[in-house]
Amino acid sequence: MIAVPDLSAVKQALAAQRIETPSWAFGNSGTRFKVFAQPGVPRTPEEKIADAATVNRFTGAAPSVALHIPWDRVDDYAALARYAGDLGVSVGAINTNVFQDDDYKLGSVTNPDPGIRRKATDHLLEAVAVMDATGSRDLKLWFSDGINYPGQDDLRDRQDRLATALREAYDRLGDDQRILLEYKLFEPAFYATDVPDWGTSFAHCVELGPKATVCIDTGHHAPGTNIEFIVAFLLRQDRLGAFDFNSRFYADDDLMAGAADPFQLFRIMYEIVRADALDPARGINFMLDQCHNIEAKIPAVIRSVMNVQEATAKALLVDRAALAAAQRSGGVLEANAVFMDAYNTDVRPLLAEVRADQGLDPDPVAAYKRSGYQERITADRAGGEQAGWGA
Ligand SMILES: [Mn+2]
Prior knowledge:
Elements: H1 7-16, E1 20-22, H2 45-59, E2 64-68, H3 77-86, E3 90-95, H4 114-134, E4 138-141, E5 146-147, H5 155-172, E6 178-182, E7 192-193, H6 198-208, E8 212-217, H7 227-236, E9 240-245, H8 262-274, E10 285-288, H9 297-316, H10 320-328, H11 332-343, H12 348-357, H13 364-371, H14 373-380
Parallel strand pairs: 1-2, 2-3, 3-4, 4-6, 6-8, 8-9, 9-10
Antiparallel strand pairs: 5-7
Helix pairs in contact: 1-9, 1-12, 2-9, 2-13, 4-5, 7-8, 8-9, 9-13, 10-11
Enzyme class: isomerase
Protein name: L-rhamnose isomerase
GO molecular function: L-rhamnose isomerase activity; metal ion binding
């Protein structure tokens, strides 16, 4: 059996783990072909926050919820943050949206039209004002900007325009605020994306300053990309700010974290543990970025939180002394066996204990189903328009 040096330290680390949920995971979503509406889906930002608070109530591990502007636009953001606080959660990252206006057909902050660049940059500044009101630390930026055809626009000029907009947003940040710059290989642009990979994001962050960090969305890479290498590299450079966890089989599928490749999630979390970066005080925001198109949304988010916890527990169980000894002696098979022993451990009983110690039900999904919450929201939210993409 594997040797675990200090099981109480493992349990303590798991109890302290924090995972941020996305408001949009609770609304209706779909593919480009169809959005399937579900009963009980939130109609307002407040109802999305109530659902996120429900996930936190059953997992004890999801005390913040990310908002998306303008999908979660309200008149009084300070009041929204107080409402969240009353439900036991805080407002997390503020996500910007410069991809849904007709103006952005040729790009937002990289658009060849300076008037459209101004409009997009003003939206980023508006998001920082929202952060001031909600007490949020993180400004999350993802740009759909890119081009579909060679020659459509100048690749280098677009980088200059991007840098200009990022600088303006960065200079607007308060002392305790920061930028999370997300990258994505392709889609909606199919030939060249302006922030396609971690290297581009990293370089812009370095140029901006210490308050700019990279956000890794696990679904935003080419197939076969070694994401844990990117994690290790960015941690070493102190430039990893956040994850958008989700699963993909093909492209940016946004399925539940740990559903498609739990082994990859374990390898990622091992690099986090290896860098001692799990502690919330280290400043890495472990977020979910998912869409639950056909499955029930709240239990899917609960399951996702549990999947991240399971991958983390396995990563914490790696016998690092044995691993280091095997690595030093060139024991290829032995080192790999140490890794696999941890991965193959059934950590569900351990996590059930951690939950019981916190006064939680050891099975959060079953507890949610028994709670009657789903039936209540289905009845209460029968009238009015459901929130979804673009709402
Ligand atoms: Mn994302």
